Amino acid sequence: MTLPALHTQGTLEGKTIVMSGGSRGIGLAIALRAARDGANIVLLAKTDRPDPRLKGTIHDAASQIEAAGGRALAVVGDVRSDDAVAAAAAQAVDAFGGIDICVNNASALRMSGTLDLSPAQYDLMQDINTRGAFMLTRACLPHLLESENAHVLTLSPPLNLTSQRWLAEFPGYLLSKYGMSLVTLTIAAEFADADVAANSLWPRTTIGTDAVRNLLGGDDALTRARRPEIMADAAYAILTTPSRERTGQLLIDDDVLRDAGVTDFSPYAYSGRDEGLDGDFFLE
Questions:
Q1: Where does 16-268 sit in CATH, by number?
Q2: Which residues does 242 contact at the CB level (< 8 Å), separation at least 6?
C-alpha cells in the first residue's frame, strides 16, 4: 500500500505525544505515523491482555511503535481514573523530559436511543469521551505550556445543531462526542495567547476499525470504509503545523489532506476506489 505524499511544514522527530487509547485502530495508526519521524509515544490504555473481540494490546502497540522508529511507553490504565491520567503525564515527563502533544483518542460507543440506553452506558460514554478528553488535556497542559509547538488533538466531530437526523440518533453518544468538541473549542480559547493549539479531527467516511467490523456489518463493511491511515496522515499534517497557525478548528480528514496537497484518496480506501463509501454518522 503506497499512500499519497504530504506537503507538511515540520517533523515530529523528538516530540513527545501522550495518547489515550492507541492499542489499535485510528490511535495506533496516528502513533505509528509519528513514530516514523522518531517521536516518543506514551500510551494510556487498558488493554494489558488480549481480548478475543479486539486485536492487539498496549504492549503489542508499543512494540510496533518502536519497530517503526519511535520510542514507546505503555502506561496500563483507564482514562476514567484521575490517578492513571496523572501517572501517564508524569511518566511521560520522567521518560522523555516533557510533553509536546496530547491526543484524546479513547472513546466509548453505544448505538442506542434514549430509552434503550442504560444510565451505566451513558455514564461510560461521558466519562471516557468528554471527561477523559478534558482531564487528560488538563494533566498535560502544564508541560504543553513549556513546548515550542504544543498541540492538543481530539478525535471528535464538527458541531451540527440543525440536523434533526443527528440530534435524534444515538443522543447519548452524540452528547459525549460533542462534549469532546467543546473541550477543543474551550481549550483553544483559554490558551490562545499561550501558543497551545487545540483542534478536533473527524473522518468523512467510516474507518475500518474493530468497531466498524463488530458493530456495522462485519468484513463487508470494510469494503465501504477507508483505512485508519487517512486519519493518521491528517493528524500528522495538523501536528506538524505551527501552533499559532491552526487552532480552535473542528476538522475533517480529507479536507486537511487536500490542504496538504493530496488529490487522490483511492489509496486510503480498502476497495482501492474512492467511491461507494459509507459516510460517517455525524456528517451530512
A1: 3.40.50.720
A2: 9, 10, 149
